[in-house]
Amino acid sequence: MNARSASAAVMESVEVSAGAGAWQPVCALDDIWPDTGVCVLLDGRQVAVFRLADGSLYALDNHDPHSGANVLSRGIVGDLGGEPVVASPIYKHHYRLRDGVCLEDPGTPLATYAVAARDGLVWLHC
Amino acid sequence: MSTRKQHIVVVGNGMVGHRFVQELLAVHSDLPAAGIELTVLGEEPRPAYDRVHLSSFFSGSSAEDLSLVEPGFYQRPGLTLRLNARVAGIERRRNTLQLADGEVLAYDKLVLATGSYPFVPPVPGSDRPGCHVYRTIEDLEAMQASGATSASGVVVGGGLLGLECAKALRDMGLRTHVVEFAPRLMVVQVDEGGGRILRSKIEELGVQVHTERNTVDITDGATARHRMVFADGSWLETDMIVFSAGIRARDELARQCLLAIGPRGGVAIDGHCRSSDADIYAIGECASWNGQVFGLVAPGYDMARVAAAHLAGSAGVSFSGADLSTKLKLMGVDVASIGDAQGRTAGARACVFTDELKQVYKKLVVSADGKRLLGAVLVGDAAEYGTLLQMMLNGLELPEAPEQLILPAPDGMAKPALGVDALPDGAVLCSCNNVSKGQLCAAIEGGAHTIGELKAATRAGTSCGGCVPLVTQVLKAELARQGVAVNNHLCEHFAHSRQELYHLVRVEGLRSFAELLARHGRGRGCDVCKPTVANILASCWNDFVLKPEHAPLQDSNDYFLGNIQKDGTYSVVPRIPGGEITPDKLIAIGEVAKRYGLYTKITGGQRIDLFGAQAHELPRIWGELIAAGFESGHAYGKSLRTVKSCVGSTWCRYGVQDSVGMAIRLEHRYKGLRAPHKIKFGVSGCTRECAEAQGKDVGVIATERGWNLYVCGNGGMKPRHAELLAADLDEATLVRLIDRFLMFYIRTADRLQRTSTWRDNLEGGLDYLKAVVLDDRLGIAAELEAAMAQVVDSYACEWRAALDDPAARKRLRTFVNSDAGDDNVVFVPERGQIRPATAAEKQMRFKGIAVVPETV
Ligand code: SRM
Ligand SMILES: Cc1cc2nc3c(=O)[nH]c(=O)nc-3n(C[C@H](O)[C@H](O)[C@H](O)COP(=O)(O)OP(=O)(O)OC[C@H]3O[C@@H](n4cnc5c(N)ncnc54)[C@H](O)[C@@H]3O)c2cc1C
Ligand code: SF4
Ligand code: FES
C-alpha cells in the first residue's frame, strides 16, 4: 500500500507526528489532475505536490539540484521497480516521491513534506 | 639489415591500392620506425573512393560520401600520396619508374594496383561525343552532363555493370535500352531460365532489352543524336551511349617492362602476389592468378592483405583464389549466383523452381550424391543467398529434401534455415572483407554489441552489405549465448517495442494510456513509455494532447506547448509556413516580444523563436499571437517542424517551380502530425538546392517536369544525404507518396528514431522502401493514405484549443496558489536583450531587466 492516502484519518495521524510547522490548505484537489503535479508557493518556498491516479499525494522540493531550475512539479510521474518517482523535465533525473532520493545520484535527498486531502482541498504541512 | 630506408611505391590509388596501404599500416603503424618510406601514385584527381557504390553518385552521394580515405589518413610520417600522377614507364634494371611528366622515382619494391579499364568494342563511331564508359567519378559527371540534354540512352552490354548503368540512365529520366551481344542478360552469372525472368522483370521496369545484337557502326541519327547499326541490318537511334562491355586489366606498364602476362591479360602473380620480377607485386583487378583475373573487390582486398604481409616479411599467408558468388540488386530486382551456377561439375544435378506470376526463379545445383550444394541461381528473390552460400562454401550436408530450401514456405511454416550455430568458426561470412564467424564472435565477446559497433570493429558488412543479415544473425545468437539480454522492450512497463505498441493501439482501437497499460503493460508507466504512447495515440487518433487523460503523459514540452529551457522557462515558436512572413506579422511578433521582455532569435529553421517566458505567461503570449493570425509551430512536439523553402521561380532567375507555394502547402498539410521523432522538410526551386532539401527527412526539389522527392536526409548529429525516392512527380502524386512514406515511418520506426536512422536500419534498404511506397508491395498504401487523411482532417492548433478549454488553460501556470513568477528565473542584459543569469550572477542577487509586470 502506498504511504499516504487521501483520507482524513491518515491526515490526523500525520498531524500528531508532524512537530513544528502547521497544516495549510494550498489548492483544491481538483486543481491537480490525476498523475500530474503542481507547484505550491508557500512563504517563498516552492513545493511540488503530486497526485497519483490511485489518490495518493506526495510533496517534495520543486528545485531540481541537477539542473538548478525549479521544475520538478512539471515532471512526468510513474514508477520504477514499483517505486513511485518523478522525472525532472530538464535532464530526466528520477526522484523517489516517498523520500526525495535521486535514483541516479542518491547522495542528498530532496526535502519531503506531509500532504493530505480533506474537504476537497489539499493540505500541506511545512 | 641495412639502415637505408626501404622505398615501397604503390601505383594506383583505387580500392585495392588504398587497402594495401591500410594493411601495411596495420603491420607497421610507425613507418619511419620500420625503416619504410611509402609512396602512392594515383592517376585520378582524388584519393581512393568506393567504386562498388559508384552508382549512388546518381542518387545523391557526393564524391566525398564515396571516399574511402579518412581525413588526414595520408598525412603521416613516411607516407606520401600523389594524385594526378600517372606512371608512364618502369625501368626494371634500374629499379626506377617514370611519371607522365618525366619525373623519375627510384623504388625498392613496387606494387601495381592499376585496376582495369572498360572495354570499348572497336566499332566505328564509338568515340563520338555522347559515348561514355562507366568507371570513374569523372565518367559519371560526363554522363550526367550528357543525360541533361538527352531523351534516350543505350547501354551496350547486359552484364552486371551494364544493368546497373541502365538503372542510372533510367533514373535520369531517359528512355533506356540495353543492347547485348549474347542471347541473354548476365550470361556469366545466370543460367537461361534465370536470364528469362530477369529480362522480363527489367522490361517491366521500362528498360527495353535487345539481345543477340552486334553493333557494327555508329553514325548520325535522324530522330536522335546517334544511330547504332547492328550486324543484322536493324538499327536503334539514341542520344547517348554507354559502353559496358566488360573490363580489361590495366597491364600496360607490365607489358612495357616485359613482365609475364596471364593468358587472359593481367600481370601474372604467384601466391604471394609477386610478379615474375621479385621486386614487383601486382594486386587487384590488374593481376592474374592461376590464369584468372578477378573483377570483384573482395579478391583484390585479399591480395592486398597477402602482399602487405609478404612485404612485411611473413611468407605464411598466401592468396588461393576466390569465390565469385555474387548477390546484387539490379533495378530493384534481386539476382544472385553462387558457385557452380551453370552446373558444370560432372554429375551435378539441378532442382529448379519457377514462378512466372511472381517472376521468381530459383535453381539449386547439387552434387551427384545429392549431399552437397555446388551452386545456385536466384532471380527475383534472393532471400536465401546467405544460407545457400554458407552451405556451399562450408560443404554442409544438405537437408533431406533440399528443394525445401528454395520452395516458398507454406503459411505459418518456417523454412529450414541455416542455424548460424551450424557454421564452423572459420566460415567467412563477409567475403568483401574476409571476416570469419570466429572473428565476429571475438569482437562481440570484446564488447561490440550493436551492428554498428560490430561493423566498426571487424569491417564486416561495410562494403557490399550483402552479408549484413548473416552478421546480424551471428550477433543475435552470440549475444543470446553470452546471456546479454537482447530485447526491444520499450521499458519495464511494456514488454513490447514501439512498433508493436503502435499496432496494438491501432488494431484494438485503444484510445488511452490507461487502456493500453491495463491490457498489455504493468505498473504505472514512466517518463519513457508515457510520452511514447501519447505520441502513438496522437499519430493514430490526433486527440487534443491536453485532454485530462492525455495531459499526464506529456513531456513538459508537450504539456506546456513550448520547449523548456535550462532555467525552466519556455520558448515560443509560432508557425511561419515555408519561412514566408508579412511585415505586419513580423511587427506583431516584435510587439509581443517587447511587451513580455522576450529574447528573440531567428532559428535554423526559418522562423522566429521567443525565449524566456514563464509557464503562467504562455497563455497570454499565445493569446496575442493567435489574435495576430499565428498558430502553434509545434517546436516542442515530436512532429513536423518546418518546411524550409527557397524563394523559387517567383523571384529567382533560376527557379523552375514555385517552391515557396509548395513548401507552404506541405507545411499546412502535415503540421501537427505526431511521429516517432521530429520531421523536417525542405523544398528547393531548382537543382541549386538553396533550401538544403537533401538534408531533410523529406526533401522536394523542383525539376522542369515536376518535383523530385528525396527522403531520409538528416543534418544534426550524423548528417546523411537524402535519397531519391521518385522523380518528376506532379503535385498530387508527390503528396500521395509523402503520405505513404511518413505513415510507413510512423508505423514502423523506433522511439526517437529520425527517418535517417530508421532508413539505415530498414532491412532491404531503399529498394524495399520504394517497393512499399511506390509499388505498394505490402498492399497497405491505401490504408496509409487513409491514416494520413484522418490526421490531416483532424488538425487543430493546439494553442487555440488550450486557450479555448478553461480547464486546460487553468493548468498552464507557474504556481497553483499564486500569480507570482519563479524568483529563481533571473535575466541579465546582453547585446540589447535578456539572457538567463549564470549561477554566480544569481548569487549576487543581481536582478536585471524586469520581466513582465504581473497582472491577471
Ligand atoms: C531553436 C533551434 C536553434 C536555433 O536557435 O536556431 C534549435 C533548438 C533546439 N534543438 Fe535543434 N534547433 C533548431 C534547428 C535545428 C536544425 C536546423 C534545421 O532544422 O534546419 C537541426 C539540424 C537539422 C536536422 O534536424 O536534421 C537541429 C538538430 C537538432 C538535434 C539533432 C537531431 C538529429 O537527429 O541529429 C537535436 C537533438 C534531438 O532532437 O534529439 C536538436 C534539439 C534541439 C532542442 C529541442 C534541444 C532541447 O531539447 O532543448 C533545442 C530547443 C529548441 C527550442 O527551445 O525552441 N536539434 N536543430 C532551431 C529551431 C528550428 C525551428 O525553427 O524549429
Ligand atoms: C560501377 C561499378 C560497380 C561495381 N560493383 C561491384 C560490386 O558490386 N562488387 C564488387 O566486388 N565489385 C564491383 N565493382 C568492381 C570493383 O570496383 C573493382 O573490383 C575494384 O575497384 C578493383 O580495385 P582496384 O584497386 O584493383 O582497381 P581500381 O579501383 O580501378 O583502382 C585502380 C586505380 O589505379 C589508377 N591507375 C591505373 N593506372 C595507373 C598508372 N599508370 N599510374 C597511376 N595510377 C594508375 C586508376 O586511375 C585507378 O584509380 C564495380 C565496379 C564498377 C565500375
Ligand atoms: S534553389 Fe534554385 S530556385 Fe531556389 S533560390 Fe536557389 S537558385 Fe533559386
Ligand atoms: S560480404 Fe560484402 S560487405 Fe560483407
From TrEMBL, chain A:
<dbReference type="InterPro" id="IPR036922">
    <property type="entry name" value="Rieske_2Fe-2S_sf"/>
</dbReference>
<protein>
    <submittedName>
        <fullName>Nitrite reductase small subunit NirD</fullName>
    </submittedName>
</protein>
<dbReference type="Pfam" id="PF13806">
    <property type="entry name" value="Rieske_2"/>
</dbReference>
<dbReference type="GO" id="GO:0051537">
    <property type="term" value="F:2 iron, 2 sulfur cluster binding"/>
</dbReference>
<keyword id="KW-0408">Iron</keyword>
<keyword id="KW-0001">2Fe-2S</keyword>
<keyword id="KW-0560">Oxidoreductase</keyword>
<keyword id="KW-0411">Iron-sulfur</keyword>
<dbReference type="GO" id="GO:0042128">
    <property type="term" value="P:nitrate assimilation"/>
</dbReference>
<keyword id="KW-0479">Metal-binding</keyword>
<dbReference type="GO" id="GO:0008942">
    <property type="term" value="F:nitrite reductase [NAD(P)H] activity"/>
</dbReference>
<keyword id="KW-0534">Nitrate assimilation</keyword>
<feature type="domain" description="Rieske">
    <location>
        <begin position="24"/>
        <end position="124"/>
    </location>
</feature>
<dbReference type="GO" id="GO:0046872">
    <property type="term" value="F:metal ion binding"/>
</dbReference>
<dbReference type="InterPro" id="IPR012748">
    <property type="entry name" value="Rieske-like_NirD"/>
</dbReference>
<dbReference type="InterPro" id="IPR017881">
    <property type="entry name" value="NirD"/>
</dbReference>
<dbReference type="InterPro" id="IPR017941">
    <property type="entry name" value="Rieske_2Fe-2S"/>
</dbReference>
TrEMBL record, chain B:
<feature type="domain" description="Nitrite/sulphite reductase 4Fe-4S">
    <location>
        <begin position="637"/>
        <end position="762"/>
    </location>
</feature>
<dbReference type="Pfam" id="PF18267">
    <property type="entry name" value="Rubredoxin_C"/>
</dbReference>
<dbReference type="Pfam" id="PF01077">
    <property type="entry name" value="NIR_SIR"/>
</dbReference>
<feature type="binding site">
    <location>
        <position position="686"/>
    </location>
    <ligand>
        <name>[4Fe-4S] cluster</name>
    </ligand>
</feature>
<dbReference type="Pfam" id="PF04324">
    <property type="entry name" value="Fer2_BFD"/>
</dbReference>
<dbReference type="InterPro" id="IPR012744">
    <property type="entry name" value="Nitri_red_NirB"/>
</dbReference>
<dbReference type="InterPro" id="IPR045854">
    <property type="entry name" value="NO2/SO3_Rdtase_4Fe4S_sf"/>
</dbReference>
<keyword id="KW-0274">FAD</keyword>
<dbReference type="InterPro" id="IPR007419">
    <property type="entry name" value="BFD-like_2Fe2S-bd_dom"/>
</dbReference>
<dbReference type="GO" id="GO:0020037">
    <property type="term" value="F:heme binding"/>
</dbReference>
<comment type="pathway">
    <text>Nitrogen metabolism; nitrate reduction (assimilation).</text>
</comment>
<keyword id="KW-0411">Iron-sulfur</keyword>
<keyword id="KW-0479">Metal-binding</keyword>
<keyword id="KW-0349">Heme</keyword>
<dbReference type="InterPro" id="IPR016156">
    <property type="entry name" value="FAD/NAD-linked_Rdtase_dimer_sf"/>
</dbReference>
<dbReference type="InterPro" id="IPR052034">
    <property type="entry name" value="NasD-like"/>
</dbReference>
<dbReference type="InterPro" id="IPR006066">
    <property type="entry name" value="NO2/SO3_Rdtase_FeS/sirohaem_BS"/>
</dbReference>
<comment type="subunit">
    <text>Homodimer which associates with NirD.</text>
</comment>
<dbReference type="InterPro" id="IPR036136">
    <property type="entry name" value="Nit/Sulf_reduc_fer-like_dom_sf"/>
</dbReference>
<keyword id="KW-0001">2Fe-2S</keyword>
<keyword id="KW-0408">Iron</keyword>
<keyword id="KW-0560">Oxidoreductase</keyword>
